[in-house]
């Protein structure tokens, strides 16, 4: 089950277990309120899981691939890990299904505070287009994720500030973002 909490400072160190852990827990309802959706499917036999298949069909997630983020396996590891942790948005949803390992997604709340979301095996997280976010591994330095997409994938990150982008403005007005 996903856990989420407010970070105690803006500048937390990466690769620390529960880095920035506070007692200010964030609920799934609070995440939904900023457009972040969470699902849970057993990753052992997910290809045959009815609910997983249903999610993909209903939302049009036709594309999928795998990415394993760990120093030994990911080409250009240092640069990629660095860019994942730069605050950015995308023009489309970011859909990540965790098949193994763990990590953290940080997302901004309506008042521009960081919420840290712990993601572990079996979690499927959907970030809406236009939400400012970043990703980091934890101290285990290993995550294996399935990336899903509607049609031909576009992974381009647009680093903050990207406030003039159409998708950002759409997100801000749809979810009543104050910042
Ligand atoms: C992104 O755009 O933030 C990422 O793809 C992060 C790596 S996938 C867990
Ligand atoms: Ni991203």
Q: Which fold name corresponds to the CATH topology?
A: Jelly Rolls
Shape: globular
Q: Strand-and-helix sequence, N→C?
A: EHEHEHEEEEEEEH
Q: Counting H and I runs of at least 4 residues, what is the number of helices? A: 4
Structure description:
The model has no long low-confidence stretch (mean pLDDT 93). Helix content is 18%, strand content 32%. The two termini are 29 Å apart. A hairpin with a 5-residue loop joins β5 (94-108) and β6. The protein is of the alpha+beta class. It has 4 helices and 10 strands. It has a single domain (3-175), classed as Jelly Rolls (Sandwich). It is globular. Strands 1, 2, 3, 5, 6, 7, 8 and 9 form an 8-stranded antiparallel β-sheet that branches. The chain has helices at 28-32, 50-59, 77-84, 166-175, and strands at residues 3-6, 37-40, 63-69, 88-89, 94-108, 114-120, 123-127, 133-137, 143-149, 158-159. It binds 4-(methylsulfanyl)-2-oxobutanoic acid (KMT) and nickel (II) ion. 4-(methylsulfanyl)-2-oxobutanoic acid binds at residues 84, 94, 96, 103, 135, 143, 145, 157. 4-(methylsulfanyl)-2-oxobutanoic acid is lined by residues 84, 94, 96, 103, 135, 143, 145, 157.
Blueprint of the fold:
Blueprint: E1 3-6, H1 28-32, E2 37-40, H2 50-59, E3 63-69, H3 77-84, E4 88-89, E5 94-108, E6 114-120, E7 123-127, E8 133-137, E9 143-149, E10 158-159, H4 166-175
Antiparallel strand pairs: 1-6, 2-7, 3-9, 4-10, 5-6, 5-7, 5-8, 5-9
List its salient traits.
179 residues; alpha+beta; Jelly Rolls; two-stranded antiparallel sheet; binds 4-(methylsulfanyl)-2-oxobutanoic acid; binds nickel (II) ion; nickel; metal-binding
């Amino acid at each position: 089950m996903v856990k989420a909490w407010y970070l105690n400072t803006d500048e937390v160190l990466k690769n620390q277990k529960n880095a920035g852990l506070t007692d200010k827990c964030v609920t799934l309802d609070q995440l939904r309120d900023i457009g972040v959706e969470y699902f849970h499917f057993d990753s052992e036999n997910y290809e045959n899981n009815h609910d997983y298949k249903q999610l993909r069909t209903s939302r049009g997630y036709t594309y999928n691939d795998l990415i394993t983020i760990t120093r030994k396996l990911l080409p250009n590891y240092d640069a990629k890990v660095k860019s994942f942790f730069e605050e950015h948005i995308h023009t489309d949803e970011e859909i990540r299904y965790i098949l193994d390992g763990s990590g953290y997604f940080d997302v901004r709340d309506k008042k521009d505070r960081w919420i840290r979301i712990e993601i572990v095996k079996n979690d499927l997280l959907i970030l809406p287009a236009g939400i400012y976010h970043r990703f980091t591994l934890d101290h285990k330095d290993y995550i294996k994720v399935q990336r899903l997409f509607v049609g031909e994938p576009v992974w381009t990150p647009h680093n903050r500030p990207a406030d003039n982008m159409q998708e950002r403005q759409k997100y801000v007005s749809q979810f009543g973002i104050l910042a």
